[in-house]
Design brief:
457 residues; alpha/beta; 18 helices; 42% helix; globular
């Protein structure tokens, strides 16, 4: 029985954070499938990919969540994808101000990553990509943010009702929902992690994390705690930042029955059912804007200029509890950021949805050989292999031997050193890929069926 199978595709979407990316990719897959393309969505630590030493997916175009340098491409595609072209969705379109004019900044790309097709939401980022990152103008595609399409009228019915969501999470139906979308990192990070972040974003990042993020989170949780004590008609939903682990927030949830820490469901789902929306140094307010909801910006500790999002520089910010308390009642504040600024970063287009712009662009990329990466570029991003790895890769080019390799990899024997290293690496990667990030074909089909149900009414 042959275990090794190849899947031929036109577009392979690889995602990292489920709640940030999956719905958006399903919308793109829906339209591409409708036009007759062969598509697939997988998690970056796909179980099959973890054991692959040969490509199991052959695709014309691979679509990734971010592509900063050669190692980004290798992390996404490893040994399991053979492709000709790459589109970077660039879900982190917004960079720190200090990177806006620094060509060598981590998020201004290097190596082969500079040669891929890159999505830009608006003019501000496009300008950076052309003038600072020095990208090929033909490979910068300004289409807006696909995620905002779910806040358009034609897709509003995609999301569940407030009553359904509150029931699922045990929140009384008569409570007001105050959503806080955390812009913060975990309560604790190792020195190794901090050093890596400083390598990417400058030594000032340590100060930003330790002297701005952590005290800001502590103060905001205290504000919410005071409100939880006096406002029993309110429930705070603390939405962690992707990958954030907060013992402080979890302790609040144990202390107050009207404080919840909930990381699942998309931010847009929560925005649409919430009565008040709060965040900090984050772009969440844009989703609130497209959802036609008010959003308050909480800045109890000033953010260093190098790390504050550029379009928040002159925004209306709340810095003390007295001001915060006012927002929990009736409040007639104007939206904290101007529509003009939002348009520069996100492209406000109430006529044409971004997913249609993306698919039109993706078809162009698929058809046009101009966007093909050269053989040299496709080889350049691979790491240098050791002797054992080279031998393994050479042997696995023979399908029967590759099937034997797959069997040995899944068993505990033989205990060969190089094979044990592969098993250990696979286990480590599986631990990194938390279960809540993964999906399956049935879940994807369900999301697409809901999308079709709304768009094809």
């Amino acid at each position: 029985m042959v275990r090794y199978k190849i899947e031929e595709l036109d577009f392979l979407f690889i995602y990292e954070h489920k709640v940030r990316e999956l719905e958006n990719l399903c919308l793109l897959k829906y339209e591409l499938d409708r036009r007759g393309y062969r598509t697939k969505i997988i998690h970056i630590e796909n179980a099959e990919a973890l054991k692959a030493m040969r490509p199991i997916y052959h695709t014309r175009v691979v679509v990734t969540m971010a592509c900063y340098q050669n190692s980004s491409i290798e992390w996404h595609t490893k040994n399991f994808v053979k492709f000709d072209k790459l589109i970077d969705m660039q879900w982190e379109n917004i960079v720190f101000p200090m990177d806006e004019k620094d060509e060598k900044a981590y998020k201004n790309y290097s190596g082969v990553a500079k040669e891929v097709v890159r999505v830009s939401w608006g003019e501000m980022n496009k300008k950076r990509l052309l003038e600072v990152a020095k990208m090929d103008p033909q490979k910068v595609k300004m289409i807006g943010h696909v995620g905002m399409d779910f806040l358009r009228e034609e897709l509003r019915g995609f999301y569940r009702s407030k009553e359904e969501v509150l029931k699922e999470y045990g929140i009384p139906a008569d409570r007001k929902v105050f959503l806080f979308v955390s812009p913060y990192f975990s309560d604790y990070h190792t020195e190794e992690y901090l050093a890596e972040m400083c390598r990417r974003f400058g030594e000032g990042w340590r100060y930003y994390y330790q002297d701005c993020m952590l005290p800001s989170k502590k103060m905001i949780l205290e504000w919410m705690g005071k409100t939880c004590e006096t406002r029993k008609d309110v429930v705070f939903v603390y939405r962690p930042h992707p990958g954030e682990e907060s013992a402080q927030a979890q302790e609040m949830a144990r202390r107050y029955d009207n404080f919840k820490v909930i990381g699942d469901l998309s931010v847009k789902q929560w925005i649409l059912i919430s009565d008040k929306i709060y965040t900090g140094n984050s772009s969440t307010f844009v989703e609130a804007f497209f959802g036609k909801k008010m959003c308050y910006l909480l800045f109890p500790v000033p953010v260093p200029a190098d790390y504050e999002l550029a379009f928040l520089k002159d925004a209306d910010k709340i810095s003390d509890f007295a001001d915060f308390e006012k927002t929990t009642g009736e409040d007639d504040r104007p939206f904290p950021v101007s529509e003009k600024l939002i348009d520069e970063v996100y492209t406000i287009d109430w006529e044409t949805p971004s997913y249609m712009k993306f698919v039109d662009m993706a078809e162009e990329v698929w058809k046009n050989p101009y966007y093909d990466l050269t053989k040299e570029q496709l080889k350049a991003y691979y790491h240098k292999m050791g002797t054992a790895e080279k031998l393994t890769k050479a042997l696995t080019k023979i399908t029967p031997l590759y099937n034997v390799y797959l069997t040995m990899l899944e068993n505990d024997r033989p205990k060969w050193k190089w094979l044990e290293a592969k098993r250990r690496a696979r286990r480590e990667l599986e631990q990194v890929a938390h279960d809540f990030e993964k999906t399956n074909d049935e879940e994807i089909a369900g999301i697409i069926a809901k999308i079709a149900g709304e768009l094809e009414k």
